[in-house]
Amino acid sequence: MKKIFVFTAILSGIAFACKNKQKKETIRQQGKENFFHVYQFLQSEIQYVDSLPIGIAKYATYNNKTDTFYIKMPEFDKIAGGFLCNELKPEIFEKEFSESAFMDQTTHSATFTYAAQNPELELQRVDVLAKTNESTNNVSSVYLEKTKHSSDTLIQQKLLWRTRTSCEIITSEQAPGKKPVISQTKLVWGIE
Predict the structure, then answer these.
(1) In which element (H, E) is residue 96 found?
(2) CA atoms within 13 A on the CB side of 188
(3) Helix %, strand %, coil % for the chain, to 5?
(4) pLDDT for the residue numbered 161
(5) What φ, ψ does residue 172 adopt, rounded to 5°?
(6) What DSSP line would sit under 111-129, residue for residue?
């Protein structure tokens, strides 16, 4: 009886592994024409916020000191515009980035990671997190990593957009031989 149980457990494990491998292969075979349209998604999110008749809270942190105040739409649009990189436009994105995907059956979520093939691009990484169920896939966040040089200063940014609620930009600026200067800007318009 014990041998049958062990054999059944092994077969179940193999079947589970094959099923997961098959799902990953299906995702990989979809091709670049099925890349998530990150640029359009972020553009629609910005338009959504522009349509809201509410105040937008801004939390600006620099040197471990945070200032909080409300901003108007032109300032929001300027800050949110940092998410709309040219590299995200489909004609560039599909050509310059590769996609990998991870499906988590436990949390019912999928993470799509897009990595730049060209190290010279400012945008180097994009992660799209979606909650999945049987009938819908809802994007819960988009994460971007950008790197550029301004004169002799290295500027790195980590940008996080949380659907319908907030966005956050962490910027690190480092001149040669100096410690990085880190600042953080967070905008909130929904319930987190």
Answers:
(1) helix 90-96
(2) 10
(3) 35, 40, 25
(4) 98
(5) -120, 125
(6) EEEEEES-TTSSEEEEEEE
Query: How confident is the model over 13-34, as pLDDT tens digits?
Result: 333 333 343 333 333 334 466 7
DSSP assigned state of 179 = P
Inform me whether the pLDDT recorded for 128 exceeds 60: yes
Q: With 0-12 CB in 10 A as exposed, 13-18 as middle and 19+ as buried, what is 166?
A: buried
The set of residues, in sequence order, having a beta carbon less than 8 Å from that of 174 and lying 6+ positions away, is 153, 154, 156, 180, 181
The alpha carbon of 44 is separated from its chain's Cα centroid by a whole number of angstroms, namely 15
Query: Over pLDDT 90: what percentage of the chain?
Result: 71
- pLDDT, one tens digit per residue, over 40-98 is 999 999 999 999 999 899 999 998 899 999 999 999 999 999 999 999 999 999 999 99
Phi and psi at residue 180, in whole multiples of 5°? -70, 145
User: What does each C-alpha distance from 52 to 20, 47, 71 come to in angstroms?
Assistant: 42, 9, 13
Identify the pLDDT of residue 136: 65
> Which strands make up the sheet holding 97-104, listed edge to edge?
65-71, 56-62, 181-188, 166-174, 153-162, 137-150, 123-132, 109-116, 97-104
Q: For residue 178, what are its two tokens?
A: 């100096």
